[in-house]
Amino acid sequence: MIMHVQYVTDEKGRKTAVQLSLKQWNDLQKSVKKLEIFEDLKQAFKEMDAHTKGKLKTPTTKQLLAQL
Question: What is the predicted pLDDT for the residue at 60?
Answer without folding.
Answer: 87
